Amino acid sequence: TSEMLQKICIRNLVRKYCRGVTAERKAQLQQKAVASAVFRGKKEGYLQSVNQPFLDTRLKENDINPKVLQLIHGEKIKYVTPVTKYDRNGFKARDRLLVLTQSSAYVVEMAKIKQKIDYATLKGISTSNLSDGIVVIHVPEDNKQKGDVILQCEHIFETVTKLCLLANKQNLVKVVQGSLQFRIGAGKEGTMVFTVGQEPQVFKAKNGQLTVV
Question: Which of 19, 119, 184, 208 is least surrounded by CB atoms within 10 angstroms?
Answer without folding.
Answer: 19
